[in-house]
Amino acid sequence: MTETLHVPTLAEMTQRGEKPDVLFWVGCAGSFDDRAKKITKAFARLLQRSGVSFAVLGAEESCTGDPARRAGNEFLFQMQALANIEVLNAYEVQRIVTTCPHCFNTLKNEYPELGGTFEVFHHTQYLQTLLKEGRLKVEGGAFKGKRIVFHDPCYLGRVNQEYEAPRALLSTLESELIEMRRCKKQGLCCGAGGAQMFKEPEPGNRDINHERAEEALATEPAIIATGCPFCNTMMTDGVKHFEKEGQVQVLDIAEAIAQADEL
Amino acid sequence: MIEQAAFLLVLSLGVYLFVRQIQRLRKGLSLARPSERHDRPAERWATMARVALGQSKMGPRPLAAFFHVLIYVGFVLINLEVLEILLDGALGTHRIFQKPLGALYPLLIHFFEFLGGAVLLACVVFLARRWSGRIGRFAHSDLTGWPQQDAAIILYAEIVLMTALLVMNAAESVRLGTPGYLLSSYLHPLFAGWSEGALHAAEKAAWWFHFVGILAFLNYLPKSKHFHIILAFPNTWYSQLEARGRIPAMPSVTREIKAMLDPSYVPDATEMPARFGAKDVSDLHFANLLNAYTCTECGRCTSECPANQTGKKLSPRKIMMATRDRVEQLLHEPENTQTLLDGWISREELWACTTCNACVEACPLNIDPLDIIQQIRQYLVMEESAAPASLNTMMTNVENNAAPWAYAQADRGAWTTEM
């Protein structure tokens, strides 16, 4: 199913004198990474299908500063944060939804101290609300009866204690939701956090994403679902490492829901 | 009368030595920047009650939690008997609670013996677990040498102290010809045929042994990982109460950037920190050092750490042990320049962290190794510009392109045209 979709920028809407319900904070991976862009588009389609009035910042969006801060560069983080907050406050943004748990954490927990207080949602939380309100309809479709294992992103789960929204969404797919031994609070990191995404790992026995992909594959899933573009990359690479990309798909929850609907 | 005097002398000496150790601890902790965590006292007391008193974070490992609770409850309740020992010793009485409590008293002693037995059982199980070599976090190289011995000494000491109580009760029961108590009655045959004088001496000896043992134990604590039985309480009181994912902003940096962005902004005249981030323990804050002294080296953090599980050098437990060792080093030799960074913790360890918070989640006492890692990373980047080259590239991209990769910011919305 192809849909035409025009995603307005906040600047355009403001010019027209309109105000969206929510700002979709796309994030760097969601804007530039080819794999993550698919997540972005899937989520945008779901928002549109649910009749949500939303906008993006487009060229006015900038890295939240999270990787710089976790790498130790407080100066660069605050440069990014204060500039972003100025933009967000100038548009009087109140509600933000994002598909990246790292952006989510930074916007939600770290911006208030610097003068940016918003109601921030991870996209799984937002979709769950749309589902509850009956605005988003999900049918099992393609995923009916399939084994899906969910990998908890650290900055959604352990850091922000959101374990249920992604699982609630997956359960609507009428799939068989399975858990790894290390899940929820004990979920194992994919290896990308803390700016590790942008560097080679330190010497060790193996890569963290191989460890995690092995654990996920041991549950014999059809789909490994996650809710973070970086986890997605790491798990996809891990699945390839074990040469299982033919049998096992790595999908963001937004993609799974969008795909279920399309069939 | 002489015995009373001896008792008071030994007690005063034990308490005096302990107070000196606490003063030393305070000196160590005062090396750090003062804590800002004095807000929200109600929440702090509640956290302490839940996490330290209520052991709420022990759950994920139920077997260890069960035996730990036995020792914990046993230790706390048997202290009622210690209170009796102190009063008897000071007043020259014998079992001062016996008369006022009447029929309840023997029941209480039965109960204490039950607890004592539970503590003995738990100590044996814990020793076996340590020696089995099958539990990774105990067989880990972090604990090679003294930390392993320290852990065993604590368990031996608890076994010996509990045994002394049972011997005392047994000798007394045999001397008085009473049926005895729950567990110590099994020791009665040991004393069969002893004269009244010998029994009395054995009872006294066990009493003194237990009393001196408790004082020795008390004074051993501050040198040991076992200090957590006391520090768990203040440590959880000083827990990080903000959202877990929040790294506190450096106000000096905020002022500088605000002045850059808005030339009319007048920064207030608060001073710049001596250093960005942490190079040594004196750059850390109070709660970091309290964390280090509270750490009981159980290794739950390290066993949950993704870097450690995949063979990297990083071990969050070692971060805490190194921090404590460095404070101790400075207390012994204030001039020693072997700083926490490089002297005790290597750069390789610090850069292996994914900031996933598994260590923070795993700690039963709300110790936060990540906070220390993060502060040293700040020092490395902001003072030494010593990040790995690939991270410098990432940061340059963020500066120039507003993204960690070198794409043009103008193309951020390009995906919308690809729909």
Describe the protein:
The complex is a heterodimer of chains A (263) and B (419). Chain A is an alpha/beta fold and 263 residues long. In chain A, 43% of the residues lie in helices and 11% in strands. Chain A folds into 2 domains: 10-129, Rossmann fold, CATH 3.40.50.1860; 137-262, Rossmann fold (3-Layer(aba) Sandwich). In chain A, strand 3, helix 6 (101-110) and strand 4 form a beta-alpha-beta unit. Chain B is elongated, with a radius of gyration of 27 Å. In chain B, helix 5 packs antiparallel against helix 7 and helix 9 runs antiparallel to helix 11. Chain B is 63% helix and 0% strand. At the A-B interface, helix 2, helix 3, helix 4, helix 5 and helix 6 of A face helix 10, helix 13, helix 18 and helix 19 of B.
- Tell me the distance between the termini of chain A: 8 Å
Portion in strands of chain A: 5-15%
Shape of chain A: globular
List how many beta strands of chain A DSSP finds.
Answer: 8
Tell me the number of strands of chain B: 0
Question: What is the alpha-carbon Rg of chain B in Å?
Answer: 27 Å
Structural class of chain A: alpha/beta
Q: Number of folding domains of chain B?
A: 2
What labels describe this entry?
heterodimer; A: 263 residues; alpha/beta; Rossmann fold; 4-stranded parallel β-sheet; 8 strands; 43% helix; globular; B: 419 residues; mainly alpha; Fumarate Reductase Iron-sulfur Protein, Chain B, domain 2; 19 helices; 63% helix; 0% strand
List the helices and strands and how they pair.
The complex is a heterodimer of chains A (263) and B (419).
Chain A lengths: L9 H6 L6 E4 L1 H6 L1 H16 L4 E2 L10 H6 L2 H17 L4 E4 L2 H10 L8 E4 H10 L14 E4 L13 H8 L4 E3 L29 H10 L5 E4 L2 H13 L7 E4 H10 L1
Parallel strand pairs in A: 1-2, 1-3, 3-4, 5-6, 5-7, 7-8
Helix pairs in contact in A: 3-11, 7-8, 9-10
Chain B lengths: L1 H28 L11 H13 L8 H30 L6 H4 L2 H29 L3 H4 L6 H31 L19 H25 L7 H10 L13 H11 L24 H9 L5 H5 L1 H4 L6 H17 L7 H5 L2 H5 L6 H5 L6 H14 L6 H13 L18
Helix pairs in contact in B: 1-8, 1-14, 2-9, 3-5, 5-7, 7-8, 9-11, 11-14, 14-18
